[in-house]
Amino acid sequence: MTAPLSQPGATEATSSDALLTVTGLTKHFPVTRGIIFRHRVGLVRSVDDVSFEVTRGETLGIVGESGCGKTTTARMLTRLIEPTAGQILFDGRDITHLRAGAMRPLRREIQMIFQDPYSSLNPRHTVGAIVGAPYRLQKVKTEKGTKQSVQEMLELVGLSPEHYNRYPHEFSGGQRQRIGIARTLALRPKLIVADEPVSALDVSIQAQVVNLLADLQSELGLTYVIIAHDLSVIRHVANRVAVMYLGNLVELAGRNDLYERPRHPYTVALLSAVPLPEPAKRTADGGRERRERVRLVGDVPSPLNPPPACRFHTRCWKAQEVCRTVPPPLEELAPGHHVACHFPENTPAA
Amino acid sequence: MAAWKGRARGGDKAAAPTVTDTSAPATSSMLDVRDLRIHFPTDDGLVKAVDGVSFTLDRGKTLGIVGESGSGKSVTSLGIMGLHHGTNAKISGKIWLDGEELVAASAGRVRQLRGSKMAMIFQDPLSSLHPYYTVGYQIAEAYLIHNKVSKKAAKEHAVDLLNRVGIPNPQTRVDDYPHQFSGGMRQRAMIAMALSCDPELLIADEPTTALDVTVQAQILDLMADLQQEFGSAVIIITHDLGVVAELADDILVMYAGRTAEYGTSEDIFDRPAHPYAWGLLGSMPRLDRARLDRLIPIPGTPPSLINVPSGCPFHPRCAYAALTNGRSVNEIPQLRAVGPGHEAACHLSTDEQRRIWGEQAARMQLSPAARHFDQEDA
After folding, report:
1. Which residues of chain A have a CB within 8 Å of the CB of B241?
2. CA-CA distance, A317 to A339, in Å (whole number)?
3. β-bridge partners, A29
4. Which of A92, A310, B13, B288 lies in disulfide reach of A323, CB 3.0 to 4.6 Å?
5. Contact between residue B202 and residue B232 where contact means Cβ atoms under 8 Å apart
6. Gyration radius of chain B over CA positions
């Protein structure tokens, strides 16, 4: 049994170890009206000025609620969406605006795991064709031939080589996710961006896939960017965690720092909102005690019209005038612990 | 509130002939489900979606039904609501709601009860709300049908309900369409709709699965508040053990259409007796405990309901099946008391269960000393 996801020191790595460096990454989607006289009526600020680094061999988790820009970020990292501004350095090379042709060789090194194992596999292709597609597209000839390589990949992810000629509908959700992972790994990428890799799976299957990702990382030396909305899954898989809110990065810290001493009020609220799998204490009259928790009111505002300055101020219980006028910069408040807040929390929140 | 206390049931004449079942419910519980079976004949064979499930539920109490997809939890709830009428479902067993048997009751009678005495909150508020009608109309609809009131009074009632579920400016929002509501507000509107006739039984099928965690916390709080106020019996169906721990008094763990374990929340979380319950607890990464290097998943996949494994349906995935001398392969385990009010369908002896759970809990570091965040590597 190995503990691949918790190498000590991964967070203290120097910047020369960075596999991926993202600076000021921004994506704005225009909202247009009209068919002939197309004009812009608004701008969805999905991701705004996000910067982070991913060190070789580590796992960066990105958490946030729907609409916070985490999927858009993932798609920009894999260059499926063109960034509006900012820079993406992969392995020291600027890939921000590479054309499709120039990007193609790099696709071997950056791969993606998708959320929905049902829609991300072509139902008319056999498993062999699906997992073998990367070899075909990249014109890679493996030593033992494609079929045997595919079968090795299937074994690596815990499927049987005999599944080669079957179709996706013959598999359960967890097995399909394994097929998707086999396809992702076929070309031995360096970086894997996984967008909600387990959220569509049942809890017992989810644990299998989480363990599989951990095993593969230690076996193949992979670097992960894992995106999820489930804070307990992220705590389990990630070395460092980035918390996003309405397109902004609000906190970035090592796993233990973040979960033990969250500093951004949003992180505090997010952590305290997670229902814990432990029955609440009984009161004398047989009812249940309510857990103390930070309650946020209302919903996440629309990214079409995000609140000015600190985007969290509309729901924040600590908001002051300065939060409405001055955007808080992302500052390193403790070694490796970056927070964008004027009034950070310091005490560990229970 | 008093305004909708007088529930018109459309006359008692319909009730009399349909209550043909003379055997009384075993208990005086608000809801008493006995040996419920819901089977669907299909071209591929008989799908035993629910196969002998029993439970009781009192007023003011909450039952959590947990299980993986395909375990029959939603089919059970639809069966109680009488929503399998008109399908080819074969339903047997007994469902007593307040002393009235529902399985043999006429569709008309169940229809009178549905919406007034029992109501349901569905998982996906976007697809369960009609996009063409205003939210207010949809909330008032059931109230208009079940009560002799004017449209104006029904609308006022809808405003009142929207206010109670925490929607700001209910007077204006009542005329909004579902697309003008956010996800959390839609789920609030769904809850308002379910509460419109002050139901005695409320079934919530994955009420927060489609919501973000901060909104989920709001909805869970709201449901707990409303239950205290209305005193209704609530069934909450979910795959999220955190949500049931938050709300449920009793928990029913389902696997492949059968009850695996049934007991109080404390029974299930602190002293679970069924290997499947151990598996669920071990599979789950937890924020309230030390982080484990590895999760302890259940091997394999949930069975197909057409080819349910022989004997104990869980035996192909169970690490302890070998301890039963082949009984788990050949013999279907019956629910057996393992503690007061705590039952499990497992061939392992109670002593074995206690011993194995002790080992499991140690592996999961469930001891009180470990109940902190990563101290060991902080």
Report:
1. 203, 277
2. 17
3. A44
4. A310
5. yes
6. 22
Q: Which of A199, A203, A260 to mutate to test the interface with B (most CBs of B within 10 A)?
A: A203
Q: Give, in order, the Cα–Cα distances in Å from B326 to each of B73, B261, B350.
A: 28, 21, 18
- Whole-number Å distance between alpha carbons of A14 and A309: 32
Mean pLDDT of A13-18: 61
User: Contact, B234 vs B63, CB < 8 A?
Assistant: yes
Name the residue among A344, A322, A350 with its Cα closest to residue A332. A344
Q: Which of B184, B286, B299 sits opposite A277 (nearest CB)?
A: B286
Counts of helices then strands in chain A (DSSP H, E)? 10, 12
DSSP run (H or E) holding A102 = helix A100-103
Beta bridge partners, A88, equal A22
Using alpha carbons, list the distances in angstroms from residue A147 to A130, A175, A181, B19, B59: 11, 19, 17, 65, 61
In Å, how far are B143, B236, B339 from B126, measured between CA atoms?
21, 19, 42
d(CA B118, CA B137): 20
Query: Side chain identity at A298, as an amino acid letter?
Result: G
Closest alpha carbon to B162 in B192, B204, B184, B133 = B192
Residue B121 structure tokens: 């909150």
Q: How far apart are CA A53 and CA B54, in angstroms?
A: 54
Q: In the 8-state DSSP scheme, what is residue B137?
A: H
- For the question of an ipTM over 0.85, the answer is no
